[in-house]
Amino acid sequence: MDFLEDIEILDCPICGGAALLEEENGWCLYVTCLDCGCSTAEIPFKNEEEKKDAARRAVNTWNMGKVISMGPGE
Ligand SMILES: [Zn+2]
Fold first, then answer.
1. Helix residue spans in 1-74 (DSSP H)
2. What is the pLDDT of residue 7?
Protein backbone atom coordinates (compact mmCIF):
# COMPACT_ATOMS: atom_id res chain seq x y z
CA MET A 1 0.00 0.00 0.00
CA ASP A 2 2.06 2.92 -1.25
CA PHE A 3 0.08 5.61 0.56
CA LEU A 4 1.58 4.27 3.77
CA GLU A 5 5.06 5.45 2.90
CA ASP A 6 4.79 8.32 5.34
CA ILE A 7 3.41 6.21 8.18
CA GLU A 8 5.79 4.54 10.56
CA ILE A 9 4.61 1.34 12.24
CA LEU A 10 6.45 0.60 15.46
CA ASP A 11 7.45 -2.86 16.59
CA CYS A 12 4.97 -4.91 18.62
CA PRO A 13 4.37 -3.30 22.06
CA ILE A 14 4.00 -6.75 23.61
CA CYS A 15 6.78 -8.87 22.14
CA GLY A 16 8.81 -6.44 20.03
CA GLY A 17 8.11 -8.41 16.86
CA ALA A 18 7.52 -7.05 13.38
CA ALA A 19 4.13 -5.45 12.75
CA LEU A 20 2.08 -5.55 9.57
CA LEU A 21 -0.88 -3.50 8.39
CA GLU A 22 -3.53 -5.91 7.13
CA GLU A 23 -6.59 -5.26 4.99
CA GLU A 24 -9.60 -7.45 5.63
CA ASN A 25 -11.80 -8.16 2.59
CA GLY A 26 -11.73 -4.54 1.46
CA TRP A 27 -13.74 -3.09 4.35
CA CYS A 28 -11.43 -2.67 7.30
CA LEU A 29 -7.81 -2.33 8.30
CA TYR A 30 -5.88 -3.35 11.37
CA VAL A 31 -2.29 -3.79 12.47
CA THR A 32 -1.18 -7.20 13.63
CA CYS A 33 2.02 -8.69 15.01
CA LEU A 34 3.65 -11.39 12.91
CA ASP A 35 5.12 -13.04 16.01
CA CYS A 36 2.56 -13.11 18.82
CA GLY A 37 -0.61 -12.44 16.80
CA CYS A 38 -1.89 -9.51 18.83
CA SER A 39 -3.65 -6.81 16.82
CA THR A 40 -5.50 -3.52 16.97
CA ALA A 41 -9.26 -3.27 16.69
CA GLU A 42 -10.52 -3.31 13.12
CA ILE A 43 -10.94 0.16 11.60
CA PRO A 44 -13.67 0.10 8.93
CA PHE A 45 -13.61 2.19 5.76
CA LYS A 46 -16.00 2.76 2.86
CA ASN A 47 -13.79 4.26 0.14
CA GLU A 48 -10.19 5.07 -0.75
CA GLU A 49 -10.18 8.34 1.17
CA GLU A 50 -11.53 6.68 4.30
CA LYS A 51 -9.07 3.87 3.78
CA LYS A 52 -6.12 6.23 4.16
CA ASP A 53 -7.65 7.66 7.32
CA ALA A 54 -8.39 4.16 8.63
CA ALA A 55 -4.80 3.12 7.99
CA ARG A 56 -3.45 6.09 9.91
CA ARG A 57 -5.85 5.46 12.79
CA ALA A 58 -4.94 1.77 12.91
CA VAL A 59 -1.22 2.58 12.94
CA ASN A 60 -1.65 5.35 15.52
CA THR A 61 -3.60 2.96 17.73
CA TRP A 62 -0.88 0.37 17.36
CA ASN A 63 1.90 2.87 18.04
CA MET A 64 0.14 3.93 21.26
CA GLY A 65 0.17 0.31 22.40
CA LYS A 66 -3.60 -0.14 22.30
CA VAL A 67 -3.55 -3.71 21.10
CA ILE A 68 -5.65 -6.80 21.71
CA SER A 69 -3.58 -9.79 22.69
CA MET A 70 -4.65 -13.19 21.42
CA GLY A 71 -2.23 -14.90 23.79
CA PRO A 72 -3.61 -17.30 26.42
CA GLY A 73 -3.81 -16.08 29.98
CA GLU A 74 -3.14 -12.43 29.22
ZN1 LIG B 1 3.96 -9.36 19.19
1. 48-63
2. 82
Q: Model pTM?
A: 0.86
CA 36 – ligand 1 centroid, Å: 4
Residue ranges of the chain with pLDDT lower than 70?
1-5, 71-74
- CA–centroid distance, 56 to ligand 1, in Å, is 19
What is the domain partition of the chain in residue ranges? 2-63
User: 8 CA distance to ligand 1 centroid (A)?
Assistant: 16
Distance CA(62)–CA(73), nearest Å, equals 21
